[in-house]
Amino acid sequence: MVDRLLIVSNRLPIALTKVRGSGWQAQPSPGGLVTALTPVLRRRRGLWFGWPGTSEGTGLDKPLAEASQDLGYALKAVPLSKTEINQYYLGFSNEIVWPLFHDFHSRCNFDPIYWKTYRAVNRRFAKAIEADAGREDYVWVHDYHLMLVARELRRLGVENRVGFFLHIPFPPLDIYLKLPWRAEIIEGLLEYDLIGFQTPRDRNNFLQCVQAMFKGFRVDTRRRVTAITIDGHETMIGNFPISIDFMDFARQAASKMVTEKASQLRQSLGNRHIILGVDRLDYSKGVPEKLRAFGYTLERFRDLREKITMVQILVPSREDILGYQILRTEIEDLANQINGKFARPGWTPIQHIFRTLGRSELLAYYRAADIALITPLKDGMNLVAKEYCAAKVDRDGVLILSEFAGAASQLHRNSLLVNPYDIEGIANAIRRGYHMSASERQLRMQRLRKSIARRNVFWWANSFIWAAANKGDEYLPISSESSSS
Q1: Is the pTM of this model over 0.85?
Q2: Is residue 203 domain-shared with residue 254, that is, in the same domain?
Q3: 481 falls in which pLDDT band (50, 70, 90)?
Q4: Which of 204, 243, 289, 301 is most buried, by the most CB atoms less than 10 A from its CB?
């Protein structure tokens, strides 16, 4: 098995804030990745490498040391300048890779300076790893910001085993070929010993790109994880769907405070059927398309008017970028137009919330909602779908899910799958969900919860680490953190 684990991600698992008169303060960042990897890192005396979230490089040693002590593993900051943040993170990562890998190539800005800075920052991460890595340490790199780290480590002479997990989708060949640096990225990824994708579709897209762009390689599909050998180097490729801490969500959702808050929410909305959307502000989430589909539902199915209310929670993101400001305005205008057309005394069709909700408040909305409408245009996984199911401790609810969300690969049998571009199809799904019998709702939700509980976030981390240590013998245990749903 893996001895010491080194986690590498764009950001450290803490948020640093500067308090006047007190210097820097560090707060742990919530999230499934941190939850899953913290016990592993503690057990293996691990390290976590990442950008500390500020371009200021002074005065960070003390708060990072204190945070390391609280977390139970060491934090290693990789400093970035403002220029690097603009060109590597906002530029290459979020103006090229993010839109391209989500099939929005028209939104890409293929500025060559972004590529130059992206390579330099990946080299910076590799040098930081080289300085602290022992010979037997396993290096696990996360996400699209750092696809070249293994290549840079090899150039530095580092021979450690190195794995990579892509949290976002990998695009099909015809989309990927639009990337000017397509060969360099694939070559860099193939320097990893194990590459993990969210779904079989993502894995197959990657394999198709390799087959189309390179010659002289060998593919071995006899093991559970595919192996590609090029120039004597073997790279294992598998899909490992990320998940949530199911039991933690379920326990909190069943609390008295959340139960009471959910009841209050239902009463405040007239005890109507609540259709819930929870999305980060991003064009990949398909929120305008979702609102148009809801408006079409009210237009077409008059019997649903005044009987359903849509609550759309929009989590702020990248508010300083013009394109996201325009998107927010579009969403707000659509909600206002629909409300203006269909609202009646005592009933507003859409309740639009633009802010970040705390865990308890979000769980109350999950508990209160009769239907979750999760319709991204493209998503690596979409954990909101899994969170909603985990929170439905009464086992009563309907999940309407985009077929282009990674979660659909696991949850398709017991959710109502829709094409997020098909407003008529979404309207039909909403009507079906509204009229679904209690017995069917409960049976579907029970099966969804069981699936998520069995393959939770701990199962995900264990699966990847086991495959890394056992040469692709994919590990599919039922996590000890799971219990009956």
Answers
A1: yes
A2: no
A3: very low
A4: 243
Structural domain tally of the chain? 2
Annotated catalytic residue, options 167, 202, 333, 394? 167
* Euclidean distance between CA atoms 364 and 342, whole angstroms: 27
Per-residue pLDDT tens digits for 315-331:
998 887 888 999 999 99
Of 479, 482, 389, the residue nearest 442 (C-alpha)? 389
Q: Is 142 a catalytic residue?
A: no
Q: Judge if 26 and 138 occupy the same domain.
A: yes
Q: Are 230 and 250 found together in one domain?
A: no
Structural domain that includes position 225: 5-243+459-469
**Residue 36 pLDDT > 80, yes or no?**
no
Alpha helices per DSSP H over 13-60: 32-43
Same domain? For 276 and 370 the reply is yes
Is 278 within a domain?
yes
Judged by DSSP in three states, 138 sits in strand
Is 485 domain-assigned? Answer: no
Interval 181-228: pLDDT, tens: 999 999 999 999 999 999 999 999 999 999 999 998 898 887 779 999
Q: How far, in Å, are 205, 247, 270, 283, 437 from residue 198 at the CA level?
A: 12, 22, 39, 20, 33
Concerning whether 167 is annotated as a catalytic residue, the answer is: yes
Verify that 273 and 406 share a domain, yes or no. Answer: yes
Question: Do 154 and 182 sit in the same domain of this protein?
Answer: yes
Return the pLDDT at 479.
43
Residue 98 and residue 169 in contact, taking contact as beta carbons nearer than 8 Å: no
Which of helix, strand or coil describes residue 42? helix
- Pick the catalytic residue from 379, 396, 412, 435: 379
